[in-house]
Amino acid sequence: MNPRVQPLPPEEWDDFTKANPYNVFATLARHPGLYRAWLRFGGALLDGTLPARDRELAILRTAYHCDSPYEWAQHARLAHEAGLTGQEIESVRHPDALWSVEDQLVLQVADDLHYAGDLTDATWAALCDRYDEARRIELVMLVAHYGMLAMVLRTLRVQIEE
């Protein structure tokens, strides 16, 4: 499918987009005010307090649930940089894969939020045992943000880079 919103041409890119030449940025830059606010918010989530492995597991599971090939492609690369193996990355698509208790909790958070828009009391209790309050909030916001972004990417038909 062709993009519904064409990415800005390179001669119109800001410094951030020049340094990060991805279609997601060049497309969302068509709305400069929203783009700048989104970059700050998304950047705060990517540079947050969660371990990089947990962050990328949550994003990949969300990309899988939301059928977002663009998110999957970008974050499979980032997950590898965060230390996940190729086999682990592919296993995110399989709920019955053997995961550590810590990894399973992160995946369960993404599952609960996708299927119910809420966490079960058992998932919340396990999250309370593992993370402080700020990290609990951050994980929920991370999954919610990437669910929203998947919808935007799909609707605007943002193309995966070659």
From TrEMBL:
Q: Where is the Carboxymuconolactone decarboxylase-like domain?
A: 32-96
InterPro entries, per the entry: AhpD-like, CMD-like
* Pfam families assigned to the protein according to its UniProt record, in alphabetical order: CMD (PF02627)
Recorded superkingdom: Bacteria
> How is this protein named in the record?
Carboxymuconolactone decarboxylase family protein
What organism does this protein naturally occur in? Nonomuraea insulae
